[in-house]
Amino acid sequence: AQSVTQLGSHVSVSEGALVLLRCNYSSSVPPYLFWYVQYPNQGLQLLLKYTSAATLVKGINGFEAEFKKSETSFHLTKPSAHMSDAAEYFCAVKGGGYQKVTFGTGTKLQVIP
Amino acid sequence: DGGITQSPKYLFRKEGQNVTLSCEQNLNHDAMYWYRQDPGQGLRLIYYSQIVNDFQKGDIAEGYSVSREKKESFPLTVTSAQKNPTAFYLCASTYVGGGTDTQYFGPGTRLTVL
Q1: Best of B5, B95, B102 to disrupt the A interface by mutation (most A CBs within 10 Å)?
Q2: Element (H, E) at A66
Q3: How many CB atoms are closer than 10 A to CB B5?
């Protein structure tokens, strides 16, 4: 069985401040982990993915995430928030032998000017 | 450009009607998926297909049906048996055997029951 927990359904940061979106996972096998971003009324866009090659993963738009096995975490960070970062972010895990992915419930990021 | 298209973008259904949502991909992906998205609930898997002429139920298949007659197409029918169909529907696809099997998403269809 696998699952994902995203802490905080809503996060607000000031423009220029650090963005930290939390994700904890459970998986019975070494996981693949993903972060997606969704803008209103649009599909999901892949930000970054962990494939066991490196624990610190860099993605698009200045985002990065660090895989910490001991904490079963894959938190998403960005050093300086931009107004265009306001969106909903989804963490996802894939651990099974077939192509089923489990998504978290999402975190809406608000950026305050 | 390769990608996934969904149509229509907005769809309105009357009570008791069946409606079909279109999903087409030109990425040459093997597997395709349908998700339902409701506020605060993330994405829930309705159906998925790993190969033409084969598909499996996901977590919330009741009231939905699919077909996979062509590799490029995976239409979803929302039947009158689905009691609460108002939601945002997302189609995704992935190449099987590529390791992470990253899912790529279409732009979505918003279905509203009148």
Answers
A1: B102
A2: strand A64-68
A3: 12
- In this structure, of A11-25, A57-71, B54-68, B85-99, the range with the lowest mean pLDDT score is B85-99
Across the range B88-104, mean pLDDT stands at 84
- Count residue pairs from A and B with Cβ separation < 8 A: 52
| A74 in contact with B, Cβ within 8 Å | no
Residues B54 and B66: their CA atoms lie apart, in Å, by 10
Predicted local confidence at residue A94, as pLDDT: 87
Coil/strand/helix, residue A69: coil
Contact B90 A106 (CB under 8 A): no
Are the CB atoms for A63 and A75 separated by under 8 Å? no
Q: Residue B103 in 3-state DSSP?
A: coil
Nearest by CB to B42, from A32, A94, A105: name it. A105
CB–CB of B3/B25 below 8 Å? Answer: yes
Q: Using CB atoms, which residue from A46, A51, A100 is nearest to B99?
A: A51
Q: Which of B41, B61, B72, B59 is nearest to A100 (CA)?
A: B59
Q: Distance, in angstroms, between B111 CA and closest chain A CA? A: 12
- Torsion angle of C-alpha atoms B79, A105, B40, A14, degrees rounded to 10: -140
